[in-house]
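Chain A, query sequence.
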Amino acid sequence: MYLIAECGINGNGSEELAKLMIRHAHEAGFDAVKFQKRSLEQCYTKEFLDSPRESPWGKTQRAQKEALEFSRLQYTLIDAYCKELGVAWSASAWDLDSQEFIHSFNVPFNKVASPMLGNWPLLRKIASERKRTFISTGMSTLAEIDEVVALFRKADCPFELMHCNSTYPMPEDQANLNCIPMLRDRYGCEVGYSGHETCLTKVCVAAVALGASSIERHITLERAMYGSDQAASIETHHLRDFVETVRAIPAILGTGIKDVTESEWPARKKLRVEVA
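Chain A, predicted structure.
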């Protein structure tokens, strides 16, 4: 099972805060950390960027969003730090320039965020790289997922779907985790889970029990920090417990083969009643 710690934009533009999240995730046992990358002028209109929004960095959407984006220098420092620790990293791109930017770091995998399932130039670009790709399926119909899967298969790009409900935070009763085996059966591929719930482990434990091959969870240093994703994230001091719990589930589930286990034989010999 592959565990991805979604740092996203929770570093609030600070590579030092990002490094703290990376270190905590690595020490807890995550396989990878992930960020988000946007070219603001491609993703948003000038009218939207100039519209009002109060934030610690100013009074417009532009000021807020520019502050959250890491520069090339910051990503270079993040890349070096991940290599030093031996943890993989990537970022979900929201536009073509951002995908080119991420590609320049030779990251080990790509990630398609749920809102991008309708961005066909971006999807074609990612698929053309033929790099392992995690595809979140929030906000999408089966017909739309059919088309994306067909694109990646035609491009011979290895992929894994991730069941997702794109609500921030997501109420637990909307997780609909039975979609995990449904998607696996429909597409004949591995299916993971990308979660935005507030609880620590309940939903992810159930996802692993249903066969999720990967788990992606937002993480944060503190939920009270500024940011739209903080409330749907796991605080870093809980990460070790989270990893230990979800990684234990496959062993707990076992093989499904019913027989007398080796550890049961002493009890059987002592307690078993045989009456003909």
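The radius of gyration is 21 Å. The domain at 2-271 is CATH 3.20.20.70 (TIM Barrel).
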